[in-house]
Amino acid sequence: MSHRLEDVIALFDGLFLSRYQTHLVRGGDEPLYLPADEVSPWHRVIFARGFYASALHEVSHWCIAGARRRQLEDYGYWYLPDGRDARQQRVFEAVEVAPQALERLLSQACGLPFNVSVDNLGEVEVDREGFQARVEAWAERYLREGLPGRAAAFRQTLAAFYREGASLEQAVAAGHRRLESAGSRPLGVID
Fold this sequence. Notes:
This protein is mainly alpha-helical.
């Protein structure tokens, strides 16, 4: 199964561009979310270096960002680079549990392996297994209680395209049906 960037971009844009005025964009070294501004009439979910997993991760952040956060650059968060201390790492992991749980479910929908990212190459000892367990537990909670509406629709779109063999148009149509029927679920949405 081929996982082309053009496909995930077309699936995302087909599902969300007209309703949410949001594009998925291949970027450079760092991911970024930019709301519409004088440069672009579209909001932009920019993923890093053309990595498919980065696209799914950044879409996951977008799916749980509430309306207010989607008006702020990078949803109003400030990213701390590698070298975080223990407290900063705990804060990072607390913010990352929900999006990585969604990323896991999106990866599964399109048949890709998923690996948690503790994203810290500093000298602080990181409990990768503990973080992975928290991500897995949150993913199970999403499955029990329901995904946020945009996440459920994108997961349906990916599954239709990658698992069921639907065309891009058919997969997007399946996502639109899910988006219309699911509404917006509050679990994990951060406004």
